[in-house]
Write a structure and sequence with these properties.
about 230 residues, alpha+beta, Ubiquitin-like (UB roll), three-stranded antiparallel sheet, Gln_synth/guanido_kin_cat_dom, Gln_synth_cat_dom, Gln_synt_N_sf, ligase
Length: about 230
Amino acid sequence: MNLPDGTLTITGREGFTTFIKKQLQVRFVHLQWVDYTNTMRVRVLTLRHFQNLLQLGQHLAVCRHYLSLIDIALPFTDRDPERPSGQCYLIPDFDSLRLHPGHDEQAAIFCYFGQGIPSEPSLSAISLSFKAPTCPRRALGQAISRLKQFGLDSRVGFELEFGCKQTRCDTGQVKEQVHQSSGLRALESFMLPVLCSITDALESVGVPIEQFHCEGSENAYELVTDC
């Protein structure tokens, strides 16, 4: 929930305890966030350590670089890797708690990128309030809230685009293949059953797919999610 002063209030922490009691096989907790480069980032904590953080009223601290590109190969980071950038906290949004698809021993939670020390860190508190002025997740929630003030609803979809090549079993060399944007022959060559299997897998974990097709780039394919 967004408050008028820009403070975010998180509830539902008591649901985590209930979740763990039902999912006794869980051993790890993924703290996930999406940065400004649309990269999914994660810190994987042992369940024991995550529960300790909750009991102590603490949150995992990370460098603010993790809202953008931080890889060592990039010029900025490579030239000045020790440059200070400040610290933020991964604040779990417990409403997003779920089992990691395909890995029942792991739970996943999306996080806000909180600034400063949360004002209500106690585990016993019903709600947690904090500032998150640079958090992409908070910005999206704020935009949705403002649209609702005008009686507008939001529907968001996205595309998954990737490349795939077929190799020869005997030599390992890449096979030459027909490829055209939205071409049928390109699908029929070998990708049609692959894309059908990918679609079935995504649908099975609650990601509805509208369509798939060949993209314009060589060996590129695209799946479009339902918004």
